[in-house]
Amino acid sequence: MKDNFNNDNLEVFFSKELQNDYQMDLDSDGWDVPSEKVWDNIASEISSSNRPPINLWRNNRPWMSIAASLLIITIVYQTMTNKQTINNLQHRLNTQVATLNEVQNNEPSDIADFQNSILPNSNDEIKIEKKSTSTISNSTAQISTTKNTTPTTISDEELIAKMTKTEPLPLLAKVHPVSSEINQQVIIATTDEKQISRSQSTSAITKKLESSFTASSFLPLNMDAKKISDFADGSTDYDVKGFYKIIEPLQPKKNRKNWYAGIFYAPSWFSKKIKGENATELKSIVDQQIVSRSSFKTGINIGYQLSDNWSVETGLALSKNKQISEHQLSFTYDPDQNQVNENGDLEAVYSVNLQTSFGDLPSDIRLAHNPNQQMEAGMPITFQLKSEQQLDMLQLPVSIRYSMGEGPLTIRLSGGAMANIVTNNKATINPPPSNYSSSGMQDLRYRNSKLHVNEMQDVKALSCSLTASLELDYELTDNVHLYIAPSYAKGITPVYEDEEKETELLQASVLLGLNYYF
Amino acid sequence: MSETQLLQGCLAQDQQCQKALYEQYKVQMFRLCLRYSNSRADAEDILQDGFIRIFSDLHQYSGKGALGGWIRKVMVNTALQHIRKNKRVPHFLEIDQVAELKEAEEQIYSRIGAKALTKMIQTLPPGYKMIFNLYVVDGYTHQEIANQLKISINTSKSQLSKAKAALRKKLEHLMVS
Questions:
Q1: Which residue of B has its CA nearest to A23?
Q2: Do A17 and B112 touch (CB under 8 A)?
Q3: Across the interface, do A42 and B167 touch by the CB < 8 Å criterion?
Q4: Is CATH 2.40.160.20 correct for A254-517?
Q5: Which residue has the higher pLDDT, A276 or B20?
Q6: What is the ipTM of this complex?
């Protein structure tokens, strides 16, 4: 079959034959198939030098934020705890050295008199020797005698402490030398009192001491014991005397402050989970459109300590989320819609619908051109628009928190729920400059300088999220605490919903705040 | 595997997906490369460079419009760069006005085939070849060609006319033979 063609349809002929190259020739002899080495070269090139580094931060931003925050908190906590421990040890060591010096300087001049005054019925000659390194443990105590300067060990069942005073003395008392006694609480009495009224097992002493003090909070310099008498009930009285020095008094427990309130600021990162039949495709589209995101929240919180570890908290926060997207639009020129505008140009309005993760964004595009410009009906027109979407919300969180650790640094775990009330969901469309050249149609004009869309469609006024956070709290003063808390909120009801899809909000934040305890 | 999955795989540097994308488009892109080059070896060089660029710049594909169209555009740009790099930039003659060419109607067999037509285009002078390919086959406007090749619109139009005249002669010769 033969065709006729002239100068014009030669173009059509070539265009038709060659643009059709998306289809394979059935009778191809391989002329249009590249050799295997081409792919080999490409594969080798892209697998070596041109492979871009995997951007872990970009692909896993919420998890990486949380991991980074946890790492920072752990490092800070460990550093400060270690510093505090070292300071405590240094302080304790200094105190012990000072105490030893004090004991040495104030040792009674007549040990024998002291011994006799304490143990008037003693049958054995027991001389108290100062031993600066002797220790006491749960089950044993070290003593020494005049006959045998080598310390001997007796079991705690054999030791009974004499009470020297029924009325407790202040734990902060500095005494030397001292006796130990026990009643309902540890009592330290000076040897000047010399009142012996009751005895108890030193195992009880030891246990009580250890439960009230840390093992290193007192320094047993020496201890002597002497069996006095057996009683009918089977118990045995021993006299015990020795040198004890309180080197780190037990700190009185602070009264818990139940109420606290504070303020916080949190740079945030947000994303969305799209559900629906074409969720994956839509997410891919909107993700590729996104140019930038910015988000932060700030607010107040108020809490109540239920116990030393548990507390409940609520508050009010303003969360501002902004997203800028770039949309590639395409439609066909329709001269039937044209009207002459005030400049004498032909102008038409085209309706487009921008898809964003915050919802659909309908917009009217006005295009104008000089009537002398020849434009063909159906001509494809493409250009880019930038849209700025704002989603501001008031957030009402309720959470329960568990505290771990003592001292100025504590860690809190928190979990709860949050209501999100949308206060602003305006969107702005920023058109490209009017001489948009990449379309190749320089006479087309985008006439609107800026479009404001008051409301994105189908955005829910109220949505709910689940929240979780990890908080590092530092006690600046008795009343003021500084904290940093990475937190994560996952939407459980949609912030956007239409017939085909719904979107839930995911928000990761790092809260920096101050709490005041009343 | 859907195009979206293929795209995501390529973005994740999955070589199986990259190979699948290459296999899907290699024939049509190789035909394009053949049209812009003088030889099969040149065309394979362009194809190779083009796909390396496609895989490294794939994140710039916005998702709007067909992926094939984007790949085709990258490949055309690669071909033009290749021509420039190899200093085979054609000399374009500026003229003020393009005369309308009146040619007698010609008859050819309607089904010459892409292979023959491609070879025919390959034999054109470089300037004719580039503009004919860009305008007739790849759908560029004269304005876009002028911007791309840094020439005037009239030059583009004149080179196209001459290219068409040259091709018409080749078709005549083919018909006679």
A1: B28
A2: yes
A3: no
A4: yes
A5: B20
A6: 0.79
